[in-house]
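FIELD: query
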Amino acid sequence: MKKILSLIVAFGAVFYLSSCTDNDEPEIIIPGEENVISGDITSNTTWTTGNTYILAGRIFVNEGVTLTIEPGVVVKGEAGTGTNATALVVARGGKLMAEGTASAPIIFTSVADEIKPGMIASPNLEADINGLWGGVLVLGKAPISVSSNASDFQIEGIPPSDTRGLYGGNDPADNSGVIRYISIRHGGANIGEGNEINGLTLGGVGSGTVIENVEVVANQDDGIEWFGGTVNVKNAVVWNAGDDALDTDQSWSGTMDNFIVISGEETDHALEIDGPEGEYSAGHTLRNGSIKGASTAELADFRDGIIGNFENIYFFGFPDPGADGFGDFSISGEESVANFANGSLVFKNLEITLAEGATLQTVFKEGAHVHATAVAAGANTVGAETAAFADWSWTAVAGELADF
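FIELD: result
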């Protein structure tokens, strides 16, 4: 059908109508106003600096289409749960070019947030309020490992009837775009019993995708979760995750370099690291990280035959493990323990400031303590470079990096 792009000039302002078919109602984009996005992105589209965009539902960037989000844009999701949960979903073959800058990050948040373009901190929402909308999902064509050994799989949160929710494939170098200097806040809406949307979901995302300088604040489920894929991520901070801060699954084979986790009172694991679910098996690397605990959080759990490298990571602020298990660094299951023993699960340069009464042996299970060193608070020699998060992240502006 014929595409229509209209331009209206009135009262000295330029109003853009998004492209639409003959049978669709156009969406009016008004500079400086809150613009409601109620339909999928079906042609190349740009959301422009100075504007706020409201996601009225689950909005897909369709295959073959690029959504460009300019620096300083604020995107807000309307409230909703279940099938009405709002989210931005980049389908396989679609691209998201969300390139913020250190002086003008792109912010994804809730309509309850009164933040406007040019602001960093929310003027009205606390940094532990979560579940107000969904999140951002990027789906690609890179390899995954699932129990059926299929090359693709349906991402959680998208009904099976919608095949745009499929992720995975045979293209390790697949390119889903650029995500740089973005902050995702107050998300994780419930979409089913015990099933919430992650702040940033990466399903089968390929190494041609660029992801750098990402912040997730107050997500009800995980901060960032990888489902297979090969994408590398650099400079990520997760503050107040409701479940796990960083969660890896299905043989993700990329690298996470320079990251900060600040656990909240609802955080389960700072790191939940899972291995393959099917025959395909690959390892990933986490390096140069600083992780602050909370009273009920665990350092990490390495599970399901995980292989990979985990190095130059500093832990502090966790409780003495005691009988409840909080504060553990665990290697779970026979396969994972065997991989640690045979050298395919590698730990190097782990440092920790221990809670009173804790020892390396009580914290680091299955002999992992031999790769850990106890240090005084602030005396760590490994960890993240906090300068990467200065100015543009809410975490830094709120003073949460003072202890790092």
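FIELD: remark
DSSP finds three helices and 31 strands in the chain.
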